[in-house]
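To the wet lab folks,

You asked to see what we're planning to order before we commit. Fair enough. Below is the target structure as tokens, and below that is the sequence we designed to fit it. If anything looks off to you, flag it before the synthesis order goes out.
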């Protein structure tokens, strides 16, 4: 009975979303306060209904109710409890419910925390959010019902895909969806502004916290997904330019551009039309990622196996929302004022260059991802666009951005002093280059261009420190005064510094591991030894073991340095009982920021086993940098100026004076 209640709650959520999608928008057009008030109340009710429905599906997974088809296909009574929870979204139907839950959550958050918004803008934003909810609830009910029953109920489930039975997959999708779906709020603000035909700096201030929150969670989600693929799949890589990886990376690039563009709009009332377009495109890329994962057009470890009808349905959603929003933009954008002017050498100018590079890079990734699909659709020919293309094109585009980023915060608004910024950064640049040469020497050489990559990463870190250093006046005023100035800086200044430094740390890790890693593929028998990364690995043999729902053969390796044993590591090959599906569990040993990675291959006829051993110097900097970037996002969000938006403008906005009317 409770399963039917969950299904019924989803139907009620559809009815609620339909009401919210029309009534507040009509109220905004008529300036009818009672109708506009339906938006916040309905959005909170919508979230409550969707949360109840999602809770019922979770309950079915936890108690192993195999009369529910979704549970039967994606769970097993022996699966550990954590993976029963993660199994809820470890499939197509459940992941769409998670998407819908987070979409309803963001709508409710706008309703609750958007009290400072003009009533008409808030009503239109909540209506647009409800339009998206209606589309996805229809999609779930018509093509992906997670509450479908089986009669008679099977005695046991098919088990969750073994690759997904990992703590990383319990964390990765919720974080990723908080980023994906979070950009829906920016999209809704953009469409609402176009419907009203007015936009100004206050609009940018209202949009920026939602953009920042979505960007922060998406950063964490991508990093978690990368790390999961690295240690779980046993292939030793951290990024493969897989089409579904690209589908999450493109909204991140566009969202980064949107974040900086909204800042220019807030501070200088410039780039208005461009910022609105970016808000539309960022969420459009998120929707495209949903289509790619569920359409069946891709073969990927990340993709859900889905029938084509689901892909067609999502494609229709894509066409309606992306096509509709872009059509509205084409119709309304020429009526909006373009905003203020600024000199090329200024903080605005640096942020414009930032936007240009990020959007071109995003377009490059989009082209490399979709071109093979389009070519196969039109001609039937199959080609593969892989890492060499992306590494070359994307790397060349991003290289100048890494140099420009530290200059931006040191340039003044409207008209900056490039010479002054150079004088402030030349010490940081010199230290970065010297440190890169020292690292290059310590690693016993490599490609000469790696020195430039290492220097760029260090320059980002030192440039972020230099920004805070000069803003506090260190060296120019007494230490006590400098300390007070530093403590008095807005939290957003520290958040920006952390985000830029985090990017530099990630670049350091990427360059170091790509340049200096070593790989050994060898057949090993018990007692044999291999050297890797200055360590000696002795293979001590294989031992059987059993888990709650799998059996495995574990290989034990003793690690020594200079003849002294320092650690040991286990690597295994598992067979999951229900699905009879094998997986490889890599053995990973961490030394500071570097890792020794051991993966087992197939057994050989003469009693040995193929072993792949990587030494990955400073690889943890890649994900550590992402964590620092995310920390910067959260620190910026804690800045009161971002949390409260622009409350002092509400009365003016209601009267029609807060937002700039179209001309």
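Sequence we intend to order:
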């Amino acid at each position: 009975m409770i399963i039917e209640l969950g299904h019924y709650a989803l139907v009620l959520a559809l009815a609620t979303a339909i009401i919210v999608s029309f009534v507040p928008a009509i109220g905004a057009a008529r300036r009818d306060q009672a109708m506009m008030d339906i938006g916040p109340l309905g959005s909170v009710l919508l979230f409550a209904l969707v949360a109840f429905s999602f809770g019922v599906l979770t309950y079915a997974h936890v108690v192993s109710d195999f009369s529910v088809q979704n549970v039967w296909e994606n769970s097993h009574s022996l699966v550990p409890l954590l993976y029963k929870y993660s199994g809820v979204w470890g499939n197509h139907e459940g992941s769409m419910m998670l998407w819908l839950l987070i979409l309803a959550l963001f709508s409710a958050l706008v309703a609750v925390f958007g009290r400072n918004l003009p009533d008409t803008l808030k009503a239109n934003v909540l209506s647009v959010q409800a339009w998206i909810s209606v589309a996805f609830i229809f999609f779930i009910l018509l093509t992906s019902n997670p509450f479908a029953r089986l009669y008679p109920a099977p005695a046991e489930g098919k088990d969750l895909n073994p690759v997904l039975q990992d703590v990383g997959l319990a964390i990765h999708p919720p974080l990723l969806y908080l980023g994906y779906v979070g950009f829906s709020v920016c999209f809704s603000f953009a469409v609402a502004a176009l419907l009203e035909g007015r936009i100004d700096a206050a609009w940018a201030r209202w949009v920026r916290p939602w953009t920042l929150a979505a960007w922060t969670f998406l950063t964490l989600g991508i990093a978690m997904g990368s790390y999961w693929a690295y240690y779980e799949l046993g292939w030793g890589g951290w990024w493969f330019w897989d089409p579904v990886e690209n589908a999450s990376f493109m909204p991140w690039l566009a969202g980064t551009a949107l974040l900086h563009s909204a800042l220019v709009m807030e501070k200088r009332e410039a780039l208005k039309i461009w910022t609105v377009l970016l808000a539309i495109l960022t969420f459009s890329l998120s929707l495209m990622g949903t289509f790619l994962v569920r359409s069946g057009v891709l073969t990927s470890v990340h993709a859900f196996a889905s029938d084509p009808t689901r892909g067609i349905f999502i494609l229709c959603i894509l066409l309606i929302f992306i096509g509709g929003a872009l059509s509205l933009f084409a119709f309304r954008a020429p009526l909006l004022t373009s905003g203020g002017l600024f000199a090329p050498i200024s903080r605005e100018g640096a942020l414009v260059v930032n936007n240009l590079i990020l959007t071109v890079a995003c377009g490059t990734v989009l082209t490399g991802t979709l071109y093979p699909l389009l070519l196969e659709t039109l001609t039937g020919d199959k080609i593969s666009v892989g890492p060499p293309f992306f590494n070359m094109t994307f790397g060349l585009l991003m290289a100048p951005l890494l140099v420009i980023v530290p200059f931006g915060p040191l340039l003044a608004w409207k008209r900056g002093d490039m010479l002054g910024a150079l004088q402030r950064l030349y010490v940081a640049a010199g230290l970065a280059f010297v440190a890169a040469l020292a690292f290059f020497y310590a690693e016993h050489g490599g490609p000469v261009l790696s020195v430039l990559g290492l220097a760029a990463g260090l320059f980002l870190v030192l440039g972020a420190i230099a920004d805070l250093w000069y803003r506090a006046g260190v060296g120019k005023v007494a230490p006590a005064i400098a300390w007070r100035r530093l403590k008095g800086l807005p939290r957003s200044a520290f958040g920006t510094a952390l985000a830029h430094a985090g990017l530099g740390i990630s670049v350091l890790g990427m360059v170091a591991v790509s340049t200096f890693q070593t790989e050994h593929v060898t057949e090993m028998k018990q007692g044999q030894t291999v050297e890797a990364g200055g360590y000696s690995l002795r293979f001590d043999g294989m031992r059987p073991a059993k888990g709650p729902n799998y059996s495995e053969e574990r290989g034990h390796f003793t690690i020594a340095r200079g003849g002294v044993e320092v650690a040991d590591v286990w690597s295994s090959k598992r067979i999951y009982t229900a699905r009879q599906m094998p997986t490889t569990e890599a053995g990973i040993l961490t030394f500071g920021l570097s890792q020794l990675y051991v993966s087992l291959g197939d057994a050989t006829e003469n009693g040995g086993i193929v072993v792949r051993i990587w030494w990955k110097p400073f690889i943890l900097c890649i994900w550590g940098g992402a964590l620092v970037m995310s920390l910067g996002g959260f620190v910026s969000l804690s800045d009161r100026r971002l949390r409260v938006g622009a409350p002092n403008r509400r009365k003016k906005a209601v009267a029609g004076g807060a937002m700039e009317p179209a001309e």
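Structural context that might help your review: Residues 644-663 have pLDDT under 50 and may be disordered. Strands lie at 518-524, 529-532, 535-546, 550-561, 564-576, 581-585, 587-591, 594-603, 609-616.

Thanks,
Computational group
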